[in-house]
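A quick aside before the break. I want you to see a complete sequence-to-structure record at least once, exactly as it would be stored in a machine-readable document. Don't worry about memorizing anything.
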Amino acid sequence: MIKKHVMSRQLFLSLLGILLVTLVLSACNMPTNATPTEVVPPDAVFTAAAETMTAQLASTVVPSVVDQPTITKALVVPETSSTPEPTLTSTPTETPTPTEIPQVILQDDFSDQTSWYAYEDDRYGFKYSDAGYHIYNTIANGAIWSIRELTFSHVALEVSGTRQEGPADSYFGVVCNFSDDGDNYYTLVIGDDGFYGLGLMENGEYDFLESGTDENNIIKRGQGITNRIRGVCNGGHFLLYANGELLLDAWDDSLDEGIVGIVVGNKQTGGRAEFRFNDFAITYP
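That is the input. The structure line, written in tokens, reads:
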């Protein structure tokens, strides 16, 4: 009888254990008011982080220049034949000279053949060849420009130019304060016949504000001869250098800021004027 009683107690404890386990499992599956935790895939976490970083950069970083595209633009811009007096000139109290090493913003030796516009037809063209970048222009009394989409109000631009062919009174130079798809900009240019000038395109009309002829042989003469030009566009103050020597010092407040580039111009004589450009640089003035 004692042995039988013990067996019954063990059976009771086993049944009680099964009942308790069943109740615990049922409680785990019962609905609750708590909000379940969302499981986020790892990739989604990284994506969200990248989007947040991008948003923060977009809202806090203010670049000093506009982002540079892979290709530049170029258009035909007709000139007028007249050379009026400058609309606004004055004599600065000091004449800056390029004695200090300028802070370089961009240097381009034209070895990367994707940075400037490339196109050719019978009237004008832009091409890479002969260890440089070429612009040719067959339009009489017209200017052809190619730009880098970098915007400044205070900048200095340098480039070397070599007349490969064409009339001696053609010219080359730099462009600044360019805007409105070419309706507004300045040019600082020289020709290897000794011509130099500051041109203004304003609302689609082009004139030279100041121009002259180099009488001191600062500009090297002749086809195939290279000249180094430096044009400063500094908040309405314009300086033009050739081969390190000052040619022009002028003031004008028509345009405040804009994109920069290079230009080749023809005068009334026309013909195919082609210049090779080397070693373009953008610096602070």
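Two observations worth writing down. Confidence is low (pLDDT under 50) at residues 1-7, 20-73, 76-99. DSSP finds two helices and 16 strands in the chain. We'll return to this after the break.
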